[in-house]
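hi!! sorry for the late reply, been swamped w classes. u asked for the two structures so here they r. pasted raw, havent cleaned anything up. first the sequence of the first protein and right below it the tokens
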Amino acid sequence: MAVTDEIRDRLQQAFSPEVLEVIDESEKHRGHGGWREGGETHFLVRMSAAALGPMTRISRHRAVHGALGPDLVGRIHALALEVGG
């Protein structure tokens, strides 16, 4: 399964978001640290979920990282988050 799909599936399962976009931005980082041939190293996640509403920005980021799990986060070089409730 592609990393993009894994991210989408885990976030969908954890938060049932109203809005969820998982964008592979790896090609923008070609030649930079952490970039690999084939991409799937640099991601942008845009998500809106009611469960995130009462959380602080830091708590939201921690919740997303927790939902993704250390195995998946360990395979990602960069993860930009635009998350809200």
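now the second protein. again sequence first, tokens right under
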Amino acid sequence: MGGVNPSLDVVIGVVVGFLLGVLFMWVRQRSRQAEEERTRALAAARVTVRPEVSRVLNLLRSGGVVVGPHDEVVQSTAQARTLGVVRGSRVVVPEVLALIRDVRQDGHPRNMELDLKREGSTSLHLMGRVAPLDDRSLLVLVEDRTAARRVDETRRDFVANVSHELKTPIGAVSLLAETLEDAADSPEDVRRFARRLQIEGRRLTDLVRQIIDLSRLQSDDPLLAQKDVSIDEVIRMAVDRNRVDADDRDVVLTAGGRGGLHVIGDEAQLATAVSNLVENAIMYSERGARVAVAARSLVLGEEEFVDISVSDNGIGIPEEEVQRIFERFYRVDYARSRDNGGTGLGLSIVKHIAAAHGGYVHVWSKPGQGSTFTVRIPQHSTREAAPEPGAGGTTTYDPVADAARGDHPQEVAG
């Protein structure tokens, strides 16, 4: 057999290479043309948001979403993403997506109200509206109404509790008035029922007054007034208000601690808070007991605080009750509270006043040993406090723990 002509091999290789190059260039050109066609098709189908609509969306505090003809998210606000309605380019809440499709089908705007469950947190109560924006897109507006619903529920509960609490003294007054009329011929019964009538009248008056106080506290901000308040004067007012009750019950009421302390706030509110604590301490103490009111200054980290503590050696509070005593109308001892005319609102008012002044309430208590309630307020004042006898200035220890005989108080935040 003869050998293969080398020149023929070279020619064949050149031809094959040329054909492959031509084929490669043709495929690449077709691919480029197809890509350009797809790009033009997408551009033709893409929904654009008008600049004025985009500006309005950015100004909204609620969640806003513009949805395209294929349920794709064209634009969304940060609030919509935070609420979990939108993730990437998709609407991920089934109820919202179903409403979008209903509106697209008939063109009629629709409102929605739904509870959105979120992992690791409470559910969100959302209200919104879906409406056509133009021929191809829809606008979804979503607002978080969780806080508003919580306030409404709290208000309804409060009104229900107030109605229940008012029924007792009003019913008692009505019944006692009838009984008093029937006992007109018995001076002893008249005096006995009249005394009881006075007690129920005072309870009704106190309840109405404290309801009004609580309503005012929820609308006033004592820190806006920027008034300098003398803690000495606050304690004096609180002690004077309760001096007669303390004497009637043979309770020794004393005031002490560090003098010359000042805070920024509302003097009347702070006096009411301390007075409520003193009143409770007297009410839940036996005859011959002691109630002490004291003020201290302390440093926690880089902040200075003023503590106003009210300590007693009364019946004390069980540990499981401590967190609940600040609930409205809650009473640890209903029998004692009823006998003494307690309304169950005093400690709730104390908590609100402390919170309004940027502070909170400490509680230490043990059954049979007594209790220490402390209102802790930031010391927003430029005045210098008079040093406590034997002290060298601002203390850096916890005075409540000291008053509680070494036990740590439990904090109840406002």
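hope this helps!! also noticed smth abt the second:
DSSP finds twelve helices and 15 strands in the chain.
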